[in-house]
């Protein structure tokens, strides 16, 4: 094979999205040599792949950014309240340039295997281009939503038009002008892409299985006063975000439950929350995500809003979520989503009532109708949280069980950071950590900083091998499930529990206890000399 090289580093990092980029920066700053492998041709991760029209972050741009460099946060200015994908990708590129990160990244290389040799305490990592790297530590930053999922619909590959997935969008963009476009999926991606496609297409047919709760984002140009205020007081805002449940400073920390207020007071607060245009809406009362009756008051408010926005009452009824409590599937943030169904060139098909049976050369077929199409957009989501990790054959030399085998009944980690039996392997925003329930950048920074400090500790104490203890892992998995069970989250058939992938074990993947509480636990574990981990001083 051409250009095959083998080299040794202190740490190998898988992925150069926001997690991988910060890990490169942070570990290098502690004097470690690093090599990152990235499947894309540039940095950005999620924001590199998700180039579909309308792609935009659902955390306000002023908060969805790194906090580790005062210079960086002072010099970068966001142009909109919610940043678009191109702007976030430019930001990622700026960070890579500013800190010279690309020199330690091998692009266009997908890691295929990683094997730990306990005799020498080294991981050997191999890529699809034949590159081999060894390192004492392996850090996965492969993304929680980076393995797009295309449902296996019979005849899919016979389709005569173009097939797209929102999570693997063509770099050159797609011109839908005058075309008949079908969109499958109405999660966050579908809800963002549908209004954009509808504006260009001759006709847009939406194939909806489950209606979703979505809030109007009220996106707008960045308010210069807000930007100025943030820049003056970043330290305060960031400190608040670090200890907030969702890693977002502007989210409320409610003390009242929904029934502490009268119906008219609740209605007033919901109206204010609705006009705010922020996912913090579900935090207006402290019991929205734990008490079904409280949740119903908010869900009903949003259902009424949907009925107000959609002119055709039959279409409004189809778009009204009714099978899960609000907030238990990721709440969506949209621009003109519901209003889009008032257009003459948009139609909605209920594929729960009339399932998609096949795709032919001409288009999509349900059990009662055929829909001729020129293009199909799959907004059908991801093999979330574990997909990218388990896409790599991770094993320990001399041990029968690979990581995929160990996790065959669902992921098992201690603090979402390590898994027993796989030494010196760290997960950034891994299963069992707050990750996807938070502002990802806040969670990424917390993990990278914890890991960097941990690796320094290991080096200064001559520890060569670290591993999660089985009993602490068992206790953490139990705790993650117990906390999830105190909430309404398990009532939704969501990707949070792997319900979107046929055959995927139903395990609650993220930790719902909140970033602040989780951070305190991780810090306490570190303070106690990495309690719950085995630290081995035996040099290889
Ligand atoms: P998703 O939330 O998993 O939604 C997938 C959609 O496809 C669902 O409506 C699902 O229906 C439907 N679907 C899947 N298979 C289907 C089939 N065989 N037939 C018909 N419908 C099918 O995926 P996503 O929208 O890509 O979002 C994933 C996550 O990415 C979000 O929850 C969010 O965390 C993140 N995201 C964030 C943003 C943002 O920041 N604004 C934007 C996009 C994505 P069911 O519900 O019935 O399964």
UniProtKB/TrEMBL annotation:
<protein>
    <submittedName>
        <fullName>Cyclohexanone monooxygenase</fullName>
        <ecNumber>1.14.13.22</ecNumber>
    </submittedName>
</protein>
<dbReference type="InterPro" id="IPR050775">
    <property type="entry name" value="FAD-binding_Monooxygenases"/>
</dbReference>
<feature type="transmembrane region" description="Helical">
    <location>
        <begin position="6"/>
        <end position="25"/>
    </location>
</feature>
<keyword id="KW-0521">NADP</keyword>
<keyword id="KW-0285">Flavoprotein</keyword>
<keyword id="KW-0812">Transmembrane</keyword>
<keyword id="KW-0560">Oxidoreductase</keyword>
<keyword id="KW-0274">FAD</keyword>
<comment type="similarity">
    <text>Belongs to the FAD-binding monooxygenase family.</text>
</comment>
<dbReference type="GO" id="GO:0018667">
    <property type="term" value="F:cyclohexanone monooxygenase activity"/>
</dbReference>
<dbReference type="Pfam" id="PF13738">
    <property type="entry name" value="Pyr_redox_3"/>
</dbReference>
<keyword id="KW-1133">Transmembrane helix</keyword>
<keyword id="KW-0503">Monooxygenase</keyword>
<dbReference type="InterPro" id="IPR036188">
    <property type="entry name" value="FAD/NAD-bd_sf"/>
</dbReference>
<keyword id="KW-0472">Membrane</keyword>
């Amino acid at each position: 094979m051409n250009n095959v090289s083998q080299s040794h580093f202190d740490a190998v990092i898988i992925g150069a999205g926001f997690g991988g980029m910060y890990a490169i920066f942070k570990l290098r700053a502690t004097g470690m040599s690093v090599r990152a492998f990235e499947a894309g041709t540039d940095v950005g991760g999620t924001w590199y792949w998700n180039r579909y029209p309308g792609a935009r972050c659902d955390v306000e741009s002023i908060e969805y950014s790194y906090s580790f460099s005062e210079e960086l946060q002072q010099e970068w200015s966001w142009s909109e309240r919610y940043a678009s994908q191109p702007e976030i990708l430019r930001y990622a590129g700026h960070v890579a340039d500013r800190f010279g990160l690309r020199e330690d990244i091998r692009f266009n290389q997908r890691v295929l295997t990683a094997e730990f040799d306990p005799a020498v305490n080294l991981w050997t990592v191999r890529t699809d281009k034949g590159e081999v790297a060894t390192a004492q530590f392996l850090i996965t930053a492969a993304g929680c939503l980076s393995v797009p999922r295309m449902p296996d619909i019979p005849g899919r590959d016979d389709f005569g038009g173009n097939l797209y997935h929102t999570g693997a969008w063509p770099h050159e963009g797609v011109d839908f002008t005058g075309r008949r476009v079908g969109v499958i999926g109405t999660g966050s991606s579908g809800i963002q892409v549908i209004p954009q496609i509808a504006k260009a297409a001759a006709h847009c047919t939406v194939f909806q299985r489950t209606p979703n709760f979505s809030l109007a984002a009220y996106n707008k140009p960045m308010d210069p006063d807000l930007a100025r205020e943030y820049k003056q007081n970043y330290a305060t805002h960031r400190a608040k975000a670090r200890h907030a449940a969702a890693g977002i400073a502007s989210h409320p920390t409610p003390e009242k439950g929904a029934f502490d207020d009268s119906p008219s007071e609740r209605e007033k607060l919901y109206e204010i929350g609705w006009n705010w245009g922020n996912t913090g809406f579900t935090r207006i009362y402290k019991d929205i995500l734990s008490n079904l009756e409280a949740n119903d008051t908010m869900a009903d408010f949003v259902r009424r809003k949907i009925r107000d926005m959609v002119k055709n009452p039959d279409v409004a009824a189809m778009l009204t979520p009714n099978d899960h409590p609000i907030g238990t599937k990721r709440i969506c943030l949209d621009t003109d989503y519901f209003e889009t169904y008032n257009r003459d060139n948009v139609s909605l098909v209920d594929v729960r009532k009339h399932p998609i049976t096949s795709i032919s050369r001409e288009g999509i077929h349900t059990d009662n109708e055929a829909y001729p199409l020129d293009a199909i957009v799959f907004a059908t989501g991801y093999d979330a949280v574990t997909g990218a990790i388990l896409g790599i054959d991770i094993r320990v030399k001399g041990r029968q069980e690979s990581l995929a085998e160990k996790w065959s009944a669902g992921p098992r980690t201690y603090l979402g950071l390590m898994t027993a039996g796989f030494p010196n392997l760290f997960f950034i925003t891994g299963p069992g950590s707050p990750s996807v329930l938070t502002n990802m950048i806040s969670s990424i920074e917390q993990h990278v900083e914890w890991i960097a400090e941990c690796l320094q500790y290991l080096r200064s104490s001559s520890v060569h091998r670290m591993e999660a203890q089985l009993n602490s892992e068992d206790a953490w998995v139990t705790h993650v499930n117990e906390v999830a069970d105190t909430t309404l989250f398990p009532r939704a058939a969501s990707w949070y529990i792997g319900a979107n992938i046929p055959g995927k074990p139903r395990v609650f993947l993220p930790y719902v206890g909140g970033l602040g509480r989780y951070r305190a636990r991780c810090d306490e574990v570190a303070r106690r000399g990495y309690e719950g981990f085995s630290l081995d001083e035996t040099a290889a």
